[in-house]
Specification:
It is a single chain. The protein is of the alpha/beta class and about 260 residues long. About 35% of the residues lie in helices and about 20% in strands. It contains ten helices and nine strands. The strands form two sheets. It has a six-stranded mixed sheet, with helices on both faces. Helix 2 crosses helix 3, helix 2 packs parallel to helix 4 and helix 3 runs antiparallel to helix 4. This is ABC transporter ATP-binding protein. One of its GO terms (molecular function) is ATP hydrolysis activity.
């Protein structure tokens, strides 16, 4: 597999001396589906910004696609969704925000319009395309920001809490769009319920901003002691079945749980 992101000794401290991430080593390979989890305040968002080249590390470096440590040189290949959608929506209308990425890449107008229409339909934005972003609800802004990142089809998606502020219906839509993305996906989230459906590998960020674990989704999500140590809870389905089945048989998702129950009956 080709390495798309390689971080070595990545550390970032804020001016007040607070260390947000500490000596992080990680490698992301092309096509991987990775979740980065940790309690609120553990440094996940700072790690995303550092990997996306939006904050300069205090120490260490990130290499992109085995080619460069300059994120700006590969900016069009990185899709970075910030935690606050207000930081991503800056044009006059929702349509212009979703069109912005394809326009910067010089995609043919007709192709860009098809892409915008498809994403707007998937995310319930069709009737909102000509509305100013500041007039959207929190959930609508979240969906518009996700559409804006997906619109230019980057090689790597770095998504900070893409499911926040949206209802269950659109959470599932976003999950499916992210899961079906052709490139590499890294999702940063404090909530573990969606992780089994979008990630095969999970990195756990400890409270001090270091990496506490890097393993398969099953290995991490069924390790109650590890998760408790970093201030997290296993997914709901894991909590329900823990102690009743071996870790290798515990369902990670609701569909898996239904299958286990059918087998038991």
């Amino acid at each position: 597999m080709d390495t798309v992101i390689d971080a070595r000794g990545l550390t970032h401290a804020y001016p007040d001396g607070t260390t947000a991430i500490s000596d992080v080593d990680l490698t992301i390979e092309r096509g991987e589906r990775v979740a980065v989890v940790g309690a609120n305040g553990s440094g996940k968002s700072t790690l995303q910004l550092a990997l996306g080249g939006l904050v300069a590390p205090t120490a260490g470096e990130v290499t992109y696609f085995g080619e460069t440590t300059d994120a700006e040189a590969v900016r069009e290949r990185l899709g970075v969704l910030l935690q606050d959608p207000n930081d991503y929506l800056f044009n006059t209308t929702v349509r212009e925000d979703i069109e912005y990425g394809p326009a910067q890449l010089g995609l043919p107008r007709e192709r860009a319009e098809r892409r915008v229409a498809s994403l707007a339909d998937e995310l319930g934005l069709t009737d909102l395309l000509d509305r100013p972003p500041f007039r959207l609800s929190g959930g609508e802004k979240q969906r518009a920001a996700v559409a804006s990142v997906l619109a230019f089809d980057p090689d790597v998606l770095l998504l900070d809490e893409p499911f926040g502020a949206v209802d269950a219906h659109y959470r599932a839509r976003i999950r499916d769009l992210v899961r079906d993305h052709d490139g590499t996906v890294v999702v940063f989230t404090p909530s573990l319920d969606a992780v089994p459906e979008i990630a095969e590998r999970v990195l756990v960020v400890d409270r001090d901003g270091s990496i506490a674990a890097d393993a398969s989704a099953r290995a991490v999500l069924t390790d109650g002691d590890l998760l408790a140590d970093v201030g997290l809870r296993p997914p709901t389905t894991v909590r329900v079945f823990a102690g009743l089945l071996d870790d290798s048989d515990v369902p990670l998702t609701v569909p898996e749980a239904r299958e286990r129950l059918r087998d038991a009956l």
